[in-house]
Specification:
The structure is a single chain. It is built from two helices and no strands. It has 64 residues and is an all-alpha fold. The protein has one domain. Helix 1 packs across helix 2. The chain is rod-shaped and about 65 Å long.
Length: 64
């Protein structure tokens, strides 16, 4: 999981308009983007779980 967080953090950082070189940034900046990456990955996992749940749901006809 650490690799995924680091990869997403680097990608988010690179998407910034004024992005410099990741390796030369201070840890405080890297940690900020790692937090963004963790949030993004958690939201993605939540979305995938919801999609799996939705695809397994069986629609019952409404009988009134």
């Amino acid at each position: 999981m650490e690799y995924e967080i680091e990869a997403v953090a680097r990608a988010l950082y690179s998407a910034e308009d004024d992005a410099q070189v990741w390796d030369y940034e201070p840890e405080i900046i890297k940690d900020e983007f790692r937090k963004y990456a963790q949030t993004a990955l958690a939201l993605l996992a939540q979305r995938r779980r919801q999609e799996r749940f939705d695809s397994q749901a069986v629609a019952f006809p409404y009988a009134a």
